[in-house]
Amino acid sequence: MIRAARYRAGMSARALGRAVGRTHPWVRDLEDGVRPPSAAMADRVSKALELDPWADAVLRSVAIEDVEPRPRRAA
Asked: Phi/psi zone of residue 21: left (φ > 0), alpha (ψ -120 to 50 degrees), beta?
């Protein structure tokens, strides 16, 4: 669905990656279902691709919670 929306928007994976602050391999992983987006990234992708409400809802339904990175423990 994301790949089809990206094609309709006339964007390359690299262009979408730049638009959302990620790399084109990240975009490919998202499109292939290898990597689910965080809620924040789902929002960025939806806005960058101007997804319709149905596609936006589908993308958000697979999003995972945003997780704050844990501080590293001193060795």
From this structure: left
Torsion of CA 58, 16, 28, 52, to 10 degrees: 20
Q: 39 in the Ramachandran plot: left (φ > 0), alpha (ψ -120 to 50) or beta?
A: alpha
Which is it for the CA torsion 6, 11, 17, 19, positive or negative?
negative
- In tens digits, the chain (75 residues) has pLDDT values of 999 999 999 999 999 999 999 999 999 999 999 989 999 999 999 999 999 999 999 999 999 987 665 666 766
CA atoms of 22 and 74, how far apart (whole Å)? 29
Residue 64 — φ and ψ, nearest 5°? -100, 165
